Predict the structure.
Amino acid sequence: MKYFGKKLITLIMTLFLVSVAAFLAFQMIPGDVVTSILGTEATPEREEQLREELGLNDPPAVRYFHWIAGVLQGDLGVSYRYSKNMNEMMPVAELIGDKLPVTLWLALVALVLIIVVSIPLGVLWAGLSGGTHAVQTSEGVRRWFGRAGHILDAALGVMTQAAMAVPSFFLGILVTYFFGIVLGLFAPGGYVGYEENFLGFLGYLVFPALSIAIPKIAMTARFLRNSMLTELSSDYVRTAYSKGSGKHRVMYGHVLRNAMMPVVTFLGMIVAEIVAGSIVVEQVFGLPGIGRLLISSISTRDFPVVEILILYITFVVIFVYFLVDILYRVIDPRISGT
């Protein structure tokens, strides 16, 4: 309980410091928000009226406390650039609420692809790399790890290295061309909202999720393979084999469990990155998600939206690492006492 209390305090303090930094940063950026909203043809009276409505005439400290108090009460403010009609600005909560499900579902589909493919691939690759060969004495196993195994090991190394090197935007273009134009599995730019057709929405998300997942699968598989090879050279593995434990029990009961410790942290980084907003992929596939909203809000100086999105990204990163710490304690109970 003491541990969770410390983590909660850390989360609150980090969010507070980030909120202050984000708010002050946008106060120092040159330019006039009112002119950006009304244009250069507005009268001085209309400009002054809008400044009063937005609270821009108050000192920065007063504006910050009004803003953060509203956030704590669920009032995220209004967007400077989006509006419901000519006389009513769009609430930030409503604006983000329309975009957030797209990013979250994209992250979920990408995460499922990463875990389902990378974990078995990493385990297989560790075997092909000769990790169990060093500790097994069976002649049959030695023959299995022959020339074919070394060729596959080298091929996986080249393919994963290439997958990690390809930029996200280029990978998105390749996926669009191959799966959309050549194979015709989806219509590029034919995004369907989750409110209209949920199955169609998920079907469209598979391809941008694949663009996100491919380099992450390569990274995770390589990371798991290296971690398993390190574990396979440990004394406890040789001891387990000497006591008669089978390959399956050693690999999945001991080695994989211990090798997953650093991989969990790595997966946590990936999850935080995806959920925070896959900006490039959302742009390539025309997805109305958080990443795309962040880019457009920065370019149009829509500071209330940008500030909330920065807090959202900060919260996601901290919360994901909090969950990673919990998973650490589940995977290795010895950590619970620290």
About this structure: Strands lie at 78-85, 88-91.
